[in-house]
Specification:
The complex is a heterodimer of chains A (335) and B (340). Helix content of chain A is 59%, strand content 0%. Chain A is mostly helical and 335 residues long. Chain A has one domain. In chain A, helix 4 (90-120) packs antiparallel against helix 5. The N and C termini of chain A lie far apart (45 Å). Chain B has helices spanning 9-20, 30-41, 56-59, 64-71, 89-101, 105-135, 146-168, 170-173, 178-182, 184-193, 197-205, 218-236, 240-251, 258-263, 267-279, 284-297, 302-320; strands at 23-24, 332-333. Chain B has 340 residues and is mainly α. Chain B is globular, with a radius of gyration of 21 Å. Chain B contains 17 helices and two strands. In chain B, 63% of the residues lie in helices and 1% in strands. The chains are: A mainly alpha (335), B mainly alpha (340). At the A-B interface, helix 1, helix 4, helix 8, helix 9 and helix 10 of A face helix 1, helix 6, helix 9, helix 12 and helix 14 of B.
Chain lengths: 335, 340
């Protein structure tokens, strides 16, 4: 197991060497969904066929009208976007997901930053060194700056939202079903602590069980490196992680972890500074903890997935430089 | 300022650990909580005496539904001695659970704390696996700065503590499957209902720690039903940690967490708990609480402020008199192992 962990760590280096996993291109899909139509190279998960079958009926439709202007108050456009998303308008679903995420982030950060300011004022100034006072002042200044930006966004776009309109889990699900990779990454990797409304909607957990791996599989077939990372991490994880729904779903599976770390390493090996021997090293390490058949299956799956879904898309398929489920003040919503 | 990141392995390891060691730092971001409280979590807490028995008068039911829930949870005296300490949980689990379900508070608290140890040992083992290669590379870099060398020394010392903890609890946790470890959620609720304040603080405060939740959505419903009463119970037993947890939830500091969702932002309630906390505060903590109170009182009517002041005075006099709330001013670590 330690050797497998080493193999995973080697693969982890791939993420650092990839030029960029967040290609700056539009995420809002404009064509009919292909997520259920493509043949699989052997499935991103062992139950891939079953999961794809569930995802199949949710086909996208062409947007029927332009989206509201950027910056429009979400409370005013929420119902329209939601209705359009419900009938398969992928652009509307993506816009709704990103707008809710930004409002959630802005409103949360206002609250958090109040605490930061209060904490920074807690120290006893008479005993503080000049360095400490300087750091404290800088912290407060940064907090005030972010507070101002968050407050501006909250006032202009996020005012008058009902609590239910900030529940991102079902909205992320819909956008992910309609092909938004950012939403898929967030939904699949969603920590319990991000799922506002979950306490009142325990049925969302059942939905997650039904949809998460299918959406992960679809994202892999769209060349989403972030999803590869999430799956590799989840299958490799051995600890008890209560807030991680994905790990609760995948469990620990060294053979599956090897598949995804192998896929990551294939991308790494394409980098001119990386010796090709790194692939052999990874396989040698894996042989200490995995049966040969599992390694062969993993190699075959990773080779095929890389060739079909990632070789033409080495930079990833996400749209934002932000982390999973992260939203900045200035992130442009998908159009 | 961002909400959540699961991008890096380090951050994801932090999520795992936060689930076990939730440090309550007023208004400080989650990452800061993790790093600030990690060392404390290594040490078993000093006072671990299991519990009193939660009587009806102590439970302080907020409503009839809550009263019914808590009445069923009334503790009964222990009928038999507990198994010797250190007996593998795999051997004691069934017996302790039956006794806990029947209202035996000592059995409930023992089960909870044993499971907590095993859960933490497993998490530490994972963290060691993940950190080992980073902190102990095969080749030594002769150009490391003094600062980096010191950082690595500290990291290795921390890993050694974790490893010691894993080894110390190896026999206790041998053969314990995931399902049993995941039952820490209902086990902590049961112990909390039967009066274990440490279990109560952990259940209320470790919002992120619900392993097995995906297969037990009913835990969310139980959480929702029990949180208000548990906080009330803890307040009536002079528990500053619960007061601080309530303040944060009512302030809307963590609106996405299960606790934040159940209690919801409520400036009047936030003011009450802050006011109570201030009555027990001293030193620099007073300054901070005054600032927070000033913020919290802005949207309130004079009547709400008067009511909050009276409520806090009454609670402090009856349940907290003489104790200091400053223990939570720099972070109160919850979900610690009791030294039972």
């Amino acid at each position: 197991m330690v050797m497998l962990a080493l193999a995973a760590i080697i693969a982890g280096g791939a993420w650092l060497l990839l030029p960029s996993r967040a290609a700056p291109r539009s995420s809002a899909p404009s064509a009919i969904a292909t997520q259920a139509a493509e043949a699989s190279p052997g499935a991103g998960n062992r139950d891939g066929d079953a999961h794809r079958a569930k995802a199949a009926p949710r086909l996208k439709r062409e947007a029927t009208s332009p989206l509201p202007p950027r910056g429009a108050p979400l409370a005013q456009i929420y119902d329209d976007l939601k209705a359009r998303a419900d009938v398969g308008d992928a652009a509307a679903a993506s816009r709704l997901y990103h707008d809710i995420g930004r409002c959630k982030a802005a409103l949360n950060s206002i609250q958090t930053l109040q605490g930061v300011v209060a904490d920074s004022s807690q120290g006893n100034d008479s005993d503080a060194s000049p360095d400490t006072l300087g750091r404290r002042t800088a912290t407060v200044a940064v907090a005030h700056h972010h507070q101002a930006k968050s407050g501006q966004l909250a006032t202009s776009q996020c005012a008058d939202l009902a609590p239910a309109q900030l529940q991102i889990m079902p909205v992320a699900l819909r956008a992910a079903q309609l092909g938004d990779n950012d939403a898929a990454d967030c939904y699949v990797g969603m920590p319990v602590t991000f799922a506002r409304g979950l306490v009142d909607h325990p049925e969302w957990l059942e939905q997650y069980k039904e949809n998460a791996l299918a959406l992960a599989d679809a994202a892999i077939r769209r060349g989403d490196w972030t999803m590869v990372e999430q799956l590799q991490d989840s299958y490799a994880k051995k600890g008890v992680d209560g807030g991680d729904l994905l790990h609760q779903l995948t469990g620990t599976d060294p053979a599956m972890a090897y598949r995804y770390s192998r896929l990551a390493l294939l991308a790494m090996a394409e980098h001119p500074d990386v010796p090709r021997t790194v692939l052999d090293q990874q396989r040698t390490l894996a042989m200490e903890s995995l049966p040969g058949a599992a390694i062969q299956a993993g190699d075959a799956w990773a080779d095929d997935a890389h060739r079909r879904y990632f070789s033409a898309n080495p930079d990833g398929a996400r749209t934002s430089e932000m982390g999973v489920c992260e939203f900045g003040h200035d992130e442009a919503p998908a159009q | 300022m961002n909400d959540v990141s699961s991008r890096s392995k380090r951050r994801r390891a932090a999520w795992a650990f936060i689930a076990l060691v939730a440090a309550v730092l007023t208004g400080v971001a989650v990452d800061a909580m993790f790093f600030a409280s990690a060392p404390m979590a290594m040490k078993p807490s000093a006072a671990a005496a299991p519990i009193g028995i939660a009587s009806e008068t102590e439970t302080g039911m907020a409503n009839d539904a809550g009263k019914r829930t808590m009445l069923r949870s009334t503790a009964v005296p222990a009928t038999a001695a507990l198994p010797p300490r250190g007996t593998p949980v795999a051997e004691t689990y069934a017996q302790l659970k039956i006794r806990a379900d029947a209202g035996d508070a000592t059995a409930a608290t023992r089960l909870y704390h044993d499971l907590q140890r095993c859960r933490m040992a497993r998490t530490f083992q994972q963290m060691i696996d993940e950190r080992l290669d980073r902190e102990l590379p095969n080749e030594v870099d002769p150009h490391l700065s003094v600062l980096e060398i010191k950082r690595r020394q500290a990291a290795l010392a921390s890993m050694q503590e974790q490893l010691d903890f894993v080894r110390d609890n190896e026999a206790l946790c041998a053969g314990l499957g995931d399902e049993r470890i995941n039952s820490i959620v209902p086990a902590s609720l049961r112990a909390a209902q039967l009066g274990d304040l440490k279990a109560l603080d952990c259940y209320v405060g470790s919002d992120m720690g619900m392993p097995g939740l995906l297969d037990h959505p009913e835990w969310l419903t139980q959480f929702k039903q029990n949180i208000p009463n548990l906080i009330e119970t803890a307040t009536r037993r002079g528990d500053w940690v619960a007061v601080d947890l309530a303040h944060h939830a009512y302030a809307g500091a963590f609106p996405d967490t299960p606790r934040g969702q159940v209690l919801g932002a409520d400036p009047a309630m936030d003011y009450r708990y802050l006011r109570l906390e201030r009555l027990g505060a001293n030193g620099a903590f007073l300054t901070k609480l005054d600032r927070l109170l000033e913020q919290a009182s802005r949207p309130l009517t004079p009547q709400q402020i008067d009511d909050g002041d009276a409520w806090a005075q009454d609670r402090y006099a009856r349940y907290f008199d003489g104790s200091s709330s400053s223990e939570v001013s720099n972070g109160a670590t919850i979900c610690q192992m009791a030294d039972d």
